[in-house]
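CORE FACILITY INTAKE
Project code: CF-77B
Contact: R.S. (postdoc)
Sample description: multi-component assembly, two entities in total
Requested service: structural model of the whole complex
Turnaround: standard
Below are the sequence entries exactly as provided by the requester. Do not edit them.
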Amino acid sequence: MNMNYTAEELAFRDEVRAFLDEKLPADIAAKVKSFRPLTKADHQRWQKILSAQGWYATHWPEEYGGVKWSPVQKHIWDEESSRYGVPRSVPFGVNMVAPVIIKFGNEEQKQTYLPRILSGEDWWCQGYSEPGAGSDLASLKTRAVREGDHYIVNGQKTWTTLGQHANMIFCLVRTNTEVKAQEGISFLLIDMNTPGISVRPIITLDGEHEVNEVFFEDVKVPVENLVGEEDKGWTYAKYLLTYERTGLAGIGLSKAALSHLKQLASRRIKNGRPLIEDPTFSQRIAKIEIDLTAAAISNLRIIASVEGGGVPGAESSMLKVRGTEIRQAINDLARRAIGPYALPFVEEELADGFDGDYLLDELAAPLSANYFNNRKLSIFGGSNEIQKNIVSKMILGL
Amino acid sequence: MDFQLNEEQQMLQDTVGRLVRGEYSFEKRLEFSETEAGYSEAFWAQLSELGLTAVPFSEELGGFGGGGVEVQSVMTELGRGLCLEPYLQSVVFGGGLVAQAGNESQREQWLTGIASGELKAAVALQEPQSFYDLNDVETRAEKSGDGYQLNGRKAVVIGGHCADLILVSARTSGDSRDADGISLFALSPDTAGVERRSYPTIDGAKGCDIVLNNVQVGADALLGGEGQAGAVIEYQSGRAIAALCAEAVGVMEVANELTLDYLKQRKQFGVPIGKFQVLQHRMVDMMSELEQARSMAILAASVADAEQSDERRRILAAAKNVIGRSGQFISENGIQSHGGIGMTWEYNFAHYAKRLITINHQLGDDDVQLERYARLMQAS
């Protein structure tokens, strides 16, 4: 047992810090740290910097432009980047569709799409969820019927995160209705500019536009955009989901949010003293910090166990549940820390270039909205209930 | 023991309920929220035409003579509709302050208007540093001429953005967190030196912060004895807490009804999701939380107009603590049970969830109430 980083790992951490000190734009980091929304341009600017460093597609094979980081190195990157306020990568291209293309796509698809993900030329979104399907993914209804060298796609996808920015969507579509639900699904890559596709915003409870509905009406998709074999898409979909769930625990993000909370609680006053010294509040913070420590060590244990390669299975489900609960608890405390000021919602304060007087505090402005927005953490990426089902089936054999 | 409403109370609740169901669809509520006032003037007019804005005032003041239970009946139904009108701020809290602290001419001047709905009051008692402690007052009122000059800043005045009368606490003596030395002033928002910074709130209502910069008021603006307002404010905030608890129960009722409907309708894996035990148990927990909350709201209503005592204080703290916790439980678990749809603006559940969370941020959250309760427990 050795819980310390090796000399090489420490050197790597220094390298990461030096890079972030030098290259991370201060305005972007400030937005991330204060939970303000990022624009498409913000994401693209940072992605270019990362790509130039060769650190954008860290888990891709080196031959396609990836970098060979060990699980511990990835962990160090996660920790440091959260601490510095690095924007979370929009995962749909680099972390989701790319691994599927690398593993199951043909040579032409690899040559076409991977470089464009690296360069930022393509912005991908995800076409998995459908109204009425949700966690029961295999019940999806969007149809793709083959006509000559095209598929004709009809149907609707939903919860398409940042789909308003995307020019490409990867979709699960039903190509066979004669067989068991899971056996008639295919994995298609679709250009969002194809006629017949329309995107409609879904406004979430905090007033933000982050997710969308995507409608397909007689959309012609060339057959060469099929990944792998027809009707075998379920296998690829499941492979992608294991990638999606890894990292959803967001330990680094929770650490950053906790340090933000402590800063906030040092500035707010209760009974004439800093809130962080208040017995009730400090106990609430302490309890979360302890829970987070435990989750962070659990995370490290999983990382160490997959050091040899492979993707963690049910363990990442457990960690997703605990990790999201912890982050939601931090968001809850942050909102509580501003007391009655949890009510005002001054949208101007969240806008780019706001230079007026903050109603209370620059840290306070986005907190209530952020609390409500992050209720999604226990719902998306496979709801926490579904994660618990996975654990009980895969680990407990129930 | 009888926990049923009497005939008159039931009629009152039915009247409000019918009005809300008829006039306050969810779609209309979204529209009202986006107007400049942030609520419906027409609905407010209907409330007052039916005499509902006069419910808590004594008959000699032109009121209905209602107490905690009557206010509870009104507030529960307003809660069910997520109504945005300033009933709590103007009628219950503002009206209560004037009724208790005002002299005869002040009552005549303002209370008649509040009871008829023509005059809308707001209470400006919190400050940026006060964190729910209404004795934490740094705004100063200095004797000036034959009146006072006010300086300071009041925080999160719900309904204050369009109120006709603002009831402001200011310190005439003592240190910043003393219970003694707080005075209460009735202020027209048009007075020179009053600056309002208005904003929407996260739950769809509107409010403002108010900066008072050398605001000159006459001696007749002082409500009650100089430096004596602490007890009045505490007492009336207790009535407001009871009313908020009742509102919360109405919000929770609808939140639970919506969730239960959803569990029965929404199918996954070929069955309604309500067939899954984990969701059944969660729904049962949500119902149990509501029952606890309902009990405490009834208890709070029963002491709302009682003479001040540690027992009254303890009950109100306990009730608001339970409401804060149950509201958050129902809000969070309701969203989770709905999945993604519960996160969306267009579906009403999210707005019920937001109101439940914000109620906890009004007049002291569950932590603050727990601390109050513990202090009172030690003192007894």
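Facility notes:
- Chain A has three domains: 7-98, 124-231, 249-394.
- The CA atoms of residues 63 and 102 of chain A lie 11 Å apart.
Invoice: internal transfer
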